[in-house]
Design goal:
Number of strands of chain A: 12
Distance between the termini of chain A: 60 Å
Number of helices of chain A: 9
Order of helices and strands of chain A: EHHEEHEHEHEEEEEEHHHHE
Low-confidence stretches of chain A: none
Structural class of chain A: alpha/beta
Mean pLDDT of chain A: 95
Shape of chain A: elongated
Largest sheet of chain A: 8 strands, mixed
Helix content of chain A: 25-40%
Oligomer: homohexamer
């Protein structure tokens, strides 16, 4: 499935402005706008509350307990990118810490999404370098085996192709194929547009039952009220 | 086991004042006072530190990936209620976000306990609307299948009957049957009463071994000290 | 494997100054300096962000749902110690709360590492008494069965001998055998020494590929760049 | 929630013949006939392939690591009963082995469903005494704390009331409230009735798409075929 | 990421003979020959011991709790195919039972790999229809929402493209891209070729240390023998 | 904690006859006789039903994804030994297959206990070479990093010292320190001695309540019968 030992240098990145706008809308809205696909599994959590990032995916495939390719991928980062790191088998080791974060930040990375562990999380939080991971672990890694950079990878159950838009926040991580980014942005923005009005109505005590005209379909479905 | 497609409108709620007082005592004390039963499984966690709530249970049974009945239950909320949401099968989808929270809050809900996922957690934290869930996920849900409101439900391993007192804080969620609420309050308050004195002694260096007279029972049980 | 019903009163503690210095270096650096061994499983997490502790291990072996021996171990604590609590079977009950924390703190304990649950976590956070646990649970425990104090224990997958240095922070918990503490400190300090310089270079945009001279070994390993 | 220290001796058992017939139909069919409720979580597995049992529920609530009440419940077993054992907290200890199985069998028990561990599984398989459990473990238990017999319990996420019909096989365990047993049997038998005909058609190559008239609803739902 | 509501009818299948030969070699050998990629997560287990299958992948993407598309995919099966079923979110429901197995078998399917649950496992074992799944559950599913057939899917952490070779046995499930099938077969057969000779030597007491000439590299790596 | 890169050649093995007799008594009885300690976590399961082994522990510490040291440990096996393999971090890779099993068997090994995965399980079952593991996986491993042989290791939560007696069967794996083996054998045999008589009584319908004289202690503990 995966090519090993290759680095693709020229990838077509998603439009940076579209990615940023999708980031503002947030994962829940973007995921709905996508038709409820593209979400990484919910075990992927931000290492500090309030973490947010959006950008174009630069991917890396790593081996368990080996972070060599994180140094290789660093060189491929352009400002606005998010690094998506997949592992060939389950692993919770701490692949990434404050030195790599300093390097990634210097290259312009918006954040890291890694299906493994990270460490130095206090320092990463101080640096405000956002990371989504499945574990936090002091366990270090070796630098011995080749993986690949910028090939399609499966990260936390989702397929990520280099150049896809990645949106990540407190609710999780969602991937939008580059070709669908503009269309998804429009659908997401449309969803968002009338949320303010809805929120005001609900705050005033209007029920969703009425606002969304649910009473009739509920009755048709057979809902019974018992006093 | 569970009746589907029904909404019980008239439930007998626990005394609101008793519920509030139990809330002040906290889950650990209340759970002890209950005889160490009634606790939801510890995978149920608050979505932000410091979350606290206590109230009378309004229950809802939902299907995996379907939050339709959360709109139905909203109408049944009275000020002081806590919504307890159970699911017919394991699911981590994000059933509840900021719009429903706005509606629940407007109805006077004290919080939500849901054996599934929620989303918009940054906004919920800002709103200080407390939620205990087993997951956080951006994944949305559909509105297609009937469940029920105000039937007894099994939530995170505990049976919850509508009108039970629910106490939730950083240590978890405990359910007190309405009929036992007053008695549990008295037992919990009695436990709490002399905690201040104990704390002062322990802070002064007195050992629990002496304060609780444990040396003799430990010796009888056969404990040996080796120098 | 484990002796039950005994309390060893005289253990040889690690050098307090060495323990403190290892604590300053942090778990990730210490674990690397140890040759990547000695780490507890990453499910052990601090109960509040920023928790840090380092000290000499005082160990206790407990039974599921029974915290009697925590009162016994309290008497054996000397200033600078960290209590390491292992359980004879998997359990998530809340063995430890604010009263025991008050007692442990009064004895000079630096913190607690427990392969089970704790409760009163809001109060523990206010007290700034650091705890690493595998769960948070309001569920209380009984005081009925003898365990042991200051015998070697297996805690979260790691063997801990009384007197070992324990270092714990946001990244996890690492155990350093007393006999290796000084040597590990030297190795860890050496690792740390040139981190500042490295960080500055990376922040200035130098790549790890160049700073660590990785390009040649990567090429030898067969890495191919594709434009 | 749960009364501790009581044994209800007189429970109303489900009709034995109805239970047996439901057992013949199997869990999958019965669960469908119930409207897809009443199933214990799928982590409950038979200890040997081909295990099957059906009967009236006799319930017992146990504490972690304590099997005392299994001796108490043994006396309450009547021929045709299935024992349902719930635990007040998660535990994988081996509560039940060949001696208790000999006793249960002598009393006429059809099997055991326990939300914990069992042991002597080789012997139990030879005896053909069917057990559904969440674990297999050699770890023994003590006899120290009272639980209850024949109170409603939550077992593996399902509420079981004494006298309910329990059906268990290779696919899992389902609970049918006694009051619904006859009606469920009729619905289940109706489902089963035309399965033979369906199976023959499918074996002959007829597609479910045609047999169930799904082509039109699929088209209406928007399904597109691409050549 | 995933297109919903489409069925691709014309896919290019892997060579049937190559698939069969890969199946004879088994997952462990094929996975090694692939360079240790392409394996589904090890939670995917056969429903009975000795299950074996190999064929060309026909894929289907399903929603949680909804098996409608299994009827749609049945029509797309050609003799020699293996159905690979992925779900858009974690689910353990029993999507597949004896009726669908009868239909799949009549169409010539070699087996099913599903990242969810199945039921009627006793009957499936009698039929010798091999299934690899992550759960066994009596819980049925609805037929309400469209997914897709023959699009690339992520199943148990691996990307599967329609027409890939799938090899499954007691050790797990491995996917070989159609384009690599012939080359992988050659590499796998070469691995296998001298296994008989190796086995004979090892059975005669020759050590792997000598047979594989490991003593020198072990010494170079610093291995020390202590008497 | 763990010394890396060393092989201890001279270990003191437990008495082979004692080990064999403990094996006949089985893990449940031995674990009770030990005072309920020494059991590996119950996730360790035999790869085929009916697997049984008992012998003297030869230990090996391995790195994730690296089985090099299994070849080193093979040379240290004497007839009657059981190999106990621990890993420095969680890993489910298939470290061991039919070739290594052939070699281990030729050396006289009674079985393997490994806190990771194994493969070729069909062949291992045919060979009747018993293995207890936490996973089954086709995923192979590399041969790159030194571990150690015959040092104390933590395997599945239990400390194992070379030369300890290991008893393993369908109920799990238990470790008996060599120094306690004879005494444990006597205690276990005593437990076993009157089991036949007990079984006969229970089979005849005598209740454990009466056979163990439990009625009085239950009454004293406050048990109430309600008609």
């Amino acid at each position: 499935m995966a090519e090993l030992g290759v680095v693709y240098r020229n990838i077509v990145r998603a439009d940076r402005d579209v990615a940023a706008k999708l980031g503002t809308l947030g994962t829940a809205t973007v995921h709905e706008a996508m038709g409820r696909v593209g979400l990484l599994k919910p075990y992927m959590r931000p290492i500090y509350p309030g973490a947010r990032a959006a950008g174009s995916a630069v991917t890396v495939l790593l081996h368990p307990g080996d972070n060599w390719m994180l140094h290789v991928v660093a060189e491929q980062i352009l400002p606005g990118d998010i690094v998506i790191a997949a592992i060939t088998a389950d692993c919770t080791d701490g692949y990434f810490g404050d030195l790599l974060a300093t390097s990634f930040k210097a290259r312009g990375a918006q954040g890291l999404v890694i299906d493994a562990g990270v460490r130095d999380v206090s320092v990463l939080a101080e640096m405000q370098f956002p990371v989504w991971s499945k574990a936090i672990s002091a366990k270090g890694t070796v630098k011995a085996t080749l993986g690949s950079v910028n090939i399609p990878v499966v990260c936390a159950g989702a397929l990520v192709t280099p150049g896809d838009v990645v949106v990540a926040d407190d609710d999780g991580v969602v991937v939008v194929p580059a070709a669908l980014a503009q269309k998804t942005l429009e659908a997401a923005a449309a969803r968002e547009a009338n949320e303010g009005e809805k929120r005001a109505k609900l705050a005033a005590g209007v029920l969703g039952l009425d606002m969304y005209n649910m009473r009739e379909p509920l009755q048709k479905a057979g809902l019974k009220y018992i006093d």
